[in-house]
Write a structure and sequence with these properties.
The chain has 7 helices and 7 strands. It is an alpha/beta fold and 236 residues long. Helix 1 crosses helix 7, helix 2 packs parallel to helix 3 and helix 3 runs parallel beside helix 4. The structure holds nicotinamide-adenine-dinucleotide.
Amino acid sequence: MKLKEKVAIVTGAAGGIGRAIADAFSHEGAQVILADLRSEPYAPLIARQVYEQFDVTQALAWNSLTSCDMCERIDILVNNAAVTCHQALDEVVLDDWERVIGINQTGPMLGMRAVIPKMRLQGGGSIINVTSSWAHVAAPGVAAYHASKGALRMMTRNAAITYAKDRIRVNAIVPGIVRTPLTDTQPEVTASIVALTPFGLAEPEEIAAGAVFLASDDARVITGSDLVMDGGYTVA
Ligand SMILES: NC(=O)c1ccc[n+]([C@@H]2O[C@H](COP(=O)([O-])OP(=O)(O)OC[C@H]3O[C@@H](n4cnc5c(N)ncnc54)[C@H](O)[C@@H]3O)[C@@H](O)[C@H]2O)c1
């Protein structure tokens, strides 16, 4: 049990990668709050889990989430919630751009801002920001998603160097193409990325294994890093 007695918040955890991370954390002994915009999770909760309907873009919601009974301490935050939008720069609809930036970039900022004071007081913590291979290499279009994930990559490094003195580790997980409700809804895009990925489509549980590592004391000296879990997509 690598995360025994730890308390974790995982955003965007109704399904997909977030849920797999939440389940892996619970199996390792953590108490996990699954926070997602959906009214309920795709599958029933398991032991040591609670579910909160929650919007990562709402600062006040972060205040109440992090002061709930279970959050007397917060050891782990996973900023996983995100959305995508298939618009190139010259096609951008401003409302869509702001929605993507709000959820993918401002949401993690609000999350980090909410948990850092508590982590500092308790002597440390682990924050994991889920970015994307598209924070490292470009694909055509999808401008707001690239912008938000690129920003989150540097926000991770900024937070890592700022809060190292407080023993707060901040790392990024960099998924490539993973089977989730998101990729299920865009089969043509998914197939085109799988074709460029030597190891093919990953399963959410494979990404969750990386999150357990980064959250655990096994990663005690790791901060500001990108754990690239993309099946070789960015190697070429
Ligand atoms: N699936 C992939 O191939 C892939 C690849 C690279 C990166 N990622 C990243 O992995 C993470 C998880 O992706 P996924 O494929 O599991 O996505 P998904 O769409 O299956 O899950 C995302 C979850 O976020 C929730 N959400 C959306 N807006 C929210 C908000 N405002 N507040 C709270 N929750 C909100 C959704 O309800 C959903 O349950 C994302 O950060 C995504 O960018 C995924």
